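thread: overnight batch results

M.L. [08:02]
morning all. the overnight job finished for the chain we discussed friday. pasting input first so we're all looking at the same thing
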Amino acid sequence: MTELSGCQVRELLPGPFEHMGDTVKDELCHDPGISKTRLAWGFIGSEATESVRSVLGTDVFELVAHGWCVAKELHEYTDRSKHPLGERSVVHLAEHEFVKVVHPVLDIMIGSYKSTTLRFDLELTAHFRAAALSICDGYITGVGAGDGNVIAKLKYHDVTLNTQHTREVPYPAHIDFKAPGLAIG
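M.L. [08:03]
and the structure it wrote out:
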């Protein structure tokens, strides 16, 4: 990408991750080597929170832009009989919404003992009022984005770790994706 939105995912998750300490404790206590150990669970929970936040330094737009790649309406642009090699198309999108889910992973080590890996679900619900996609050879090569908002929700299994937070994300006027672009399909 040549330009990003300037908003990192972690900015959509302000404040503490509620229940992180309890979630980590519940998971670690399944391990027989840990269950009988008396640990500073509050400290471990806050360290887990900071570790997860550190990997959420990705640009919001960089993640949500991949949501268009799976849109059924765009699959026709991968068909060479309809859109020959080298053809450039601009597809205008009206108001729309989609959810992109990514899975940050946290490995917890206590001393030299690797105890467990926690896999979180980060749901980013993106709402756009309008966007224009540049497409070539089955790839989204760029986007002229309007404005919108993103709701981020961090979960571990069925436990939501943050309260929902909506933020207006100032998307740049135009973004070119690194060649060949984002693959549709």
